[in-house]
Amino acid sequence: MKDRMSHHLEYVVGAEKSLRELIGEEEVMPLLKGVVEAGASRAELTDGGDRMLWWFGVPPGDQSLTVTLPVLLEGETAGKVTLRGRASEEKIIRILSGMLAATITAMLRANLKRILTTETHTKVVNQSYEELLETNKRLRTSEARYKDLASSLEEKVRERTEELRAAHSRMLQQEKMASVGQLAAGVAHEINNPLSFLASNINTLGKYVARFREMLLFYRSASGGDDTLSQFRKEAGQKWESLRIDRIMADVGELIAQSLEGAERVGKIVSDLKGFSHIDDGEEMPVDINSEIDKTLRVASYEMPEGAEIARDFEPLPAFTCNPALLCQVFLNLILNAAQSRRGPLRLSISTEEHNGEIAVTFSDNGSGIPEEIRSRIFEPFFTTKEVGAGKGLGLTVAYEIVTAYHGTITVESEQGKGACFTIRLPSKKEK
Amino acid sequence: MIEFDELEKRMVLKLVYYGPALSGKTTNLLRLHDIIDREGRGELMVLDTKDDRTIFFDLLPFFFIAPSGLKIKVKVFTVPGQVRHDATRKAVLQRADGVVFIADSQTSEVFNNGSSFENLEKNLAFVGLDISRIPLVLQFNKRDLRDIVTEEEIRRVWEPAGIPLFMASALEGRGVVETFREIAGMVYEAMDRRFGLKENHGLDKESFLKRLTSGAAESLPFSGGSR
Q: Does the reported pTM lie above 0.80?
């Protein structure tokens, strides 16, 4: 504790003060002069050890009267006043000495009080200051600790954000795969149809070919035989009849035409899919948005419900540089969204136009619309109004992200029960 | 101890009245001043107060001379009770020889008593004094008021601490001298052990206490200390 306090003031509350510390010549001398002027011949003030401090008047010696009174400090005699004078002046000298002792005692008291107040105040201020410094130091330390914590927190947040970003992009990829998967079901059905009649036709053709073969073999063997011509004609006619060559000859052309048409349909589906998926080109290139919409529509048509009516109102557009697969994904998501939200036969009108350096594409459907309270949320990931399991709620999110990536906007206007109108706006002149 | 000077034959002791704000520390000193004779005690010095609340401290000094010629001064201080004046309390507590803790008996003040006592423990440690060794007396003041904690309850809580306990009404002057006599006696014993007050200076406990409390008739105590 001594060490701790040693740099503070030495002052201890209540430390003893001597008379000399509490009172000075400039305070005492006027009093001493005063009592001498009032009638004493000499006035003295001594300290607690009877040492002379101050005096005024004629030298001591011939005075016949000496009056000494104590000066008190904290109940203790801290000094003495002595007045000398003529015996004839005794009364006034006694009164003067009493007044002088009382005055100096009161002065000591007042000065002690002032000194105590000042010293305590100084000590308290110093100590408070030291404590403030201490507190300041502690605060600095804790501030440094929090800074440390904060910087490592930033690092942690960065890590987590990166993880989330990765997870998010995986989810988007999965959503893309899901919409492709949905398409695949429709496409598979579409391909299965021509394939099954192709198989059946080929089977029939095989049977027809067997009869042609038999007929031809008959001609060949009979042509080198001994039979008469009339005999040959008769037998050939019978054979022709029994193999029903007339009928199968009438059918075979249609079969081949039908099969070719089926193969063409499959070929077209494959080429639609290729065009839509842009399997051959994953990179950015100038594309015509109108034709990309058409490509998407062709593929989506396999998923379109019975009786769907799709109206196209396209204006010529400038080429837009993008990854066409991504753009087709946006169109597909909007078209499928419209198909899923329909009530009754789907009416979807798609229009494009360019205006003020902006390409606008609108998809307007006759579905159930989007209630106002959820309109602001439909682009949020995982927000869905479909039944659990029917959709992940990422279709519009994917569309939003792709459009935003191309510095475009996607907005929706809707009146509940009256369908929804999505508008995509893309800058027709790409900004650097 | 503020000072002990063998050559000058001088001993200056310090007693401190501690406790929460407005518990009656200054009133205790005022009553002591009123009750005890002019002889041997100095005037009560009340340093500046604001709205009756002590900012610095009050000081009541006592002075007498032992048969051996040893000059003994006992300075009794109060501390400001308000929480904000902690630095002043530390300054006053420095080199104390004994502490009187003035608690407020009112039920509403139980918490303040507790935190002030904790503050005393903390500050004693700060100025290098050991609360388990320094003479310490506990006074529950304001027994004249209604809505106070019962003496039974106070004794149940505080007696196990082994600190002498006094019930008082400083306003009515009751229990004040008893509290003072107890702390003075304890300080005497501590000083006697260190400096042989009786053996070397011919000052026994009774005359020590008599000098400090001259003129004080034993007022009716609410209850005495047990020790």
A: no
